[in-house]
Amino acid sequence: MKTSQILCVVLAAALAVVSWQLATKSPEKEATEQTGDNGGEGRRHGRPSWNPAFSAIMNRTSCRAFADRLITEAQIDTLVRAAMAAPTARNQQPWQIVVVTDRDMLDSIAKECGNIKMAAEAPVAIVLCGDLKIAREKEAEEFWVQDISAASENLLLAAQSMGLGAVWCGIYPIPDRVKFITSLLELPADIIPLNVIPVGYPKDKLQPKDKYEEDRVHYNTY
């Protein structure tokens, strides 16, 4: 048999195999391959293994114990950029961000704010603040909390995707906390701290919680 004839036979056989596979693949099987849902972990928790963004969302959890390990300026820059990519009312972007790396200041935060004791271990704490002067420019002042909250979640998800741990520690609207952080960071009157987010490498392996509750999902009406 000539070489050209052998090649034709091989190509025909390969085409037949591919055609059979396409004909027998069910929509359910194709969806499973795309989402990573093999009827186990993926189906129970809705975590497509192929989607890194969804993976970061579903695996994010609060980290309250940090390893004795520094994070780089480049990592901090990435976190801040992620925060500033958030949506805002009227596109006002009313944020001011203070990055705290000074050890004495971190220890002071841990000592004075009972909800932020983990700052004593964290190599950095990022304080996300609302700039009321910016928010007022297009009558978006009432939305600054939502805007800074969206930026905060972006930062938390970015930290998760980078293998870092982080935890949202509320400041506003607790007057004593707002007063202390404002004084410590020397914030102007129009800058309101919403939260402090300690960031670092987790000391222990973190286990995310499955918070999904089907009975809280409503379509069209309650």
- Total DSSP helices: 9
Strand and helix order: HHHHHEHEHHEEHE
Largest sheet: 5 strands, antiparallel
Mean pLDDT: 86
Can you describe this structure?
The protein has 222 residues and is an alpha+beta fold. Helices cover 45% and strands 13% of the residues. The chain is built from nine helices and five strands. The chain has helices at 3-24, 27-35, 41-45, 52-59, 73-83, 103-112, 132-136, 144-161, 175-185, and strands at 95-100, 124-131, 165-166, 169-170, 191-200. Strands 1, 2, 3, 4 and 5 form a five-stranded antiparallel sheet that branches. α5 crosses α8. The longest helix is centred in the N-terminal third of the chain and has 22 residues, at 3-24. It is globular, with a radius of gyration of 25 Å. The termini are far apart. Mean pLDDT is 86; it is low at 22-44.
What are the main properties of this structure?
222 residues, alpha+beta, five-stranded antiparallel beta sheet, 5 strands, 13% strand
In short:
By secondary structure, this protein is of the alpha+beta class.
Write the layout of secondary structure elements.
Blueprint (H helix, E strand, L loop, with lengths): L2 H22 L2 H9 L5 H5 L6 H8 L13 H11 L11 E6 L2 H10 L11 E8 H5 L7 H18 L3 E2 L2 E2 L4 H11 L5 E10 L22
Antiparallel strand pairs: 1-2, 2-5, 3-5, 4-5
Helix pairs in contact: 4-8, 5-8
